[in-house]
Amino acid sequence: MNPDNAIRSEDYKKQPLWFKGINALWGATYPLGTKSVLKKDSLIKAARKSTGLEDLGSDFWDEPLERMIDSIQQEARLHPIGQFITRQRIINLLSVRLRAEEYFKKYPEILEQDVYPAMIIVGLQRTGTTKLQRLLAADPENRSVLSWEAINPAPIKNDVKSGEERIKIAKTSVKALQLMSPGFFAIHPVEYEAPEEDVLLLDVSFLSTTAEATMHVPSYASWLEKTDQSPAYAYMMKLLKLLQWQRPGKRWVLKTPHHLEFLPQIKKHFNDVHLIWPHRDVHQSIPSFLSMVAYSRSLFSNMVRPEEVAEHWVRKVGYMLDQALAFRKDGNEAMFTDIQYEDLVKDSTGVLKQIYYDRGLAVSDELAQIFENTALKNPPGKYGKHAYRLSDFGMENSDLDRYTSAYQEFQKTLNGR
């Protein structure tokens, strides 16, 4: 898949000259002590100083943070800008928790709320999940987590209603990403006011797959698979309550592939939930995702190895799919609406009508027009074309089949319905 003038898998190596220059100069000064410090106590101290707050909550568990930091230090091979971004991001996540705890204490009614009913998109990466989320979020009755809220769900300087301070931060983050990796937007559009993945709420507990998507952290990723995710999901529910207290809605529209691996947690923590699973040929979706990971990792490291990305994520995707299929077979089939990527591309409004029908709702003519207008505003290739080849990652289709055979058989049963 190599259309002309497209962003290709191997283009992740094409970093701006200024980006390379800063990393080279900064790295040369490391002997002078300029390396950003990644130590748990230092990071927590910085977050407390930044916010003027002390309480991370009685349910704060520091082992995930310690394990993630250790894996980053030992395995991630970060360049200086990547090291700096990582430090600032961890400080921000800790600051979010500090501010959230302050609001929970100040306004106890926040945690007394019930979380809204939820429609949660749980498809694999690169199966149309972003398109689907943005369409569903266009319904005025639906409440999504916007990008600026995902980065900072807890108010800053009491910007409870306006989100002014948090929006400024999100705008700056988007501009920085555009400067560091202009091609990334052709793969995954990042817009500060658009819906974003709620996996960023799980990041606040340092129990999410974000780290392994952006860095080479195999020991942390291995530990994460074997670790109870209840603390992260329980805290995500608290953050959703904080968000709906700030900006009310009728039902949540959430999305992240991360949930495929942990669907029992979704069932445990949401009282009323409808799971939407978009499906696409894995020989298309997985190479596209590997390309996205390579671009993401290049923001943090100069030593991104395509074969390493594939070795980790092809197995990981297969594991996630197997976990999700096991959940479905365990008496949970009725929780799902399955949709096909091709149908979403060709007739998105028809797909949305099916989702609403399965939810016991109807799409009015007015709402259908809203969906149509939203689709027109977000056409395919809005930020450029994305080209990807599995061979760029040292793999063939048979390597994908090895890990996804059960899922491919499941897809055949769906297509035969």
Automatic annotation (TrEMBL):
It comes from the Bacteria. Gene3D superfamilies: P-loop containing nucleotide triphosphate hydrolases. This is Sulfotransferase. The lineage of its organism: Bacteria, Pseudomonadati, Bacteroidota, Cytophagia, Cytophagales. InterPro entries: P-loop_NTPase, Stf3_sulfotransferase. PANTHER family: OMEGA-HYDROXY-BETA-DIHYDROMENAQUINONE-9 SULFOTRANSFERASE STF3, PAPS-DEPENDENT SULFOTRANSFERASE STF3. It comes from Fulvivirga sedimenti.
